[in-house]
Amino acid sequence: MTVTVTIDPSRPVATLINVFTVSPDRQGELIALLARATEETMKHQPGFVRASFHASLDGERVVNYAQWESVEHFRAMLADPEARVHMDEASALATDVQPRLFRVESTHSP
Length: 110
Known about the structure:
Blueprint: E1 14-21, H1 27-40, E2 48-55, E3 61-68, H2 71-79, H3 81-93, E4 96-102
Antiparallel strand pairs: 1-3, 1-4, 2-3
Helix pairs in contact: 1-3
């Protein structure tokens, strides 16, 4: 199933960009874990908007791009024990994890 998503800078959401450094032989495992965690837990959290996962071509990075209705919704998810289990599992597969919250400033299309 293909879903098209528009990133809208006029919509005030909290955007998480989380960069995982991972051994290339574990990149697929991490993507699968993040996708499962999203289907089972994250998308059922209040304020969840969307998530996507990007695999670097060199196999060494996974980027999680997720949006929440607000910073408060994101923080509430961080405090949820079920969500914590998934985040801890993902962190265990990575050698480094760099989560940051952003706001969308602009988008460009042809």
